[in-house]
Amino acid sequence: MAMTVHVDIVSAEGAIHSGQAAMVYATAEMGEVGIAPRHTAFISRLRPGDVRVENEQGEQEHFYVSGGMLEVQPHKVTVLADTAIRARDLDEAAALEAKRRAEDTLSGQKAEFEYAKAQAELAEAVAQLRAIEKLRRLKGR
């Protein structure tokens, strides 16, 4: 039996995933990290993007997180995200529309608060579109 690590992915709406994994990949603040069972403990911020949970058979389940925190312990990985969505449930049309709205707001350069909010919305929409594209490429293999 191969070694596994317990993985919990939790958002503000509730738990989205809980189970065993042979490997976990996430977009941390310092870049993409790969976490195997018995990994050294650490905590990092997550960037908006893809979290992949790989089972013992090598199959991967993809999730989109809008950012948050990653806590790694030797036998447990916890992802705490503001928003977490199974990648297959991402809505490409909605992400494209959010990107367009954010770009329109940024081009208008209204109040500083609106500008900062539009930058955050644009970053999240682009991250969702990247996750959708990554999943599309993997399905094409």
From TrEMBL:
InterPro entries reported in the protein's UniProt record: ATP_F1_dsu/esu_C_sf (IPR036794), ATP_synth_F1_dsu/esu (IPR001469), ATP_synth_F1_dsu/esu_N (IPR020546), ATP_synth_F1_esu_C (IPR020547), ATPsynth_dsu/esu_N (IPR036771)
SUPFAM superfamilies: Epsilon subunit of F1F0-ATP synthase C-terminal domain, Epsilon subunit of F1F0-ATP synthase N-terminal domain
Localisation: Cell membrane
HAMAP family, per the entry: ATP_synth_epsil_bac
Protein family (similarity comment): Belongs to the ATPase epsilon chain family.
Self-association state and partner proteins as the record states: F-type ATPases have 2 components, CF(1) - the catalytic core - and CF(0) - the membrane proton channel. CF(1) has five subunits: alpha(3), beta(3), gamma(1), delta(1), epsilon(1). CF(0) has three main subunits: a, b and c.
Name this protein carries in UniProt: ATP synthase epsilon chain
Protein's gene: atpC
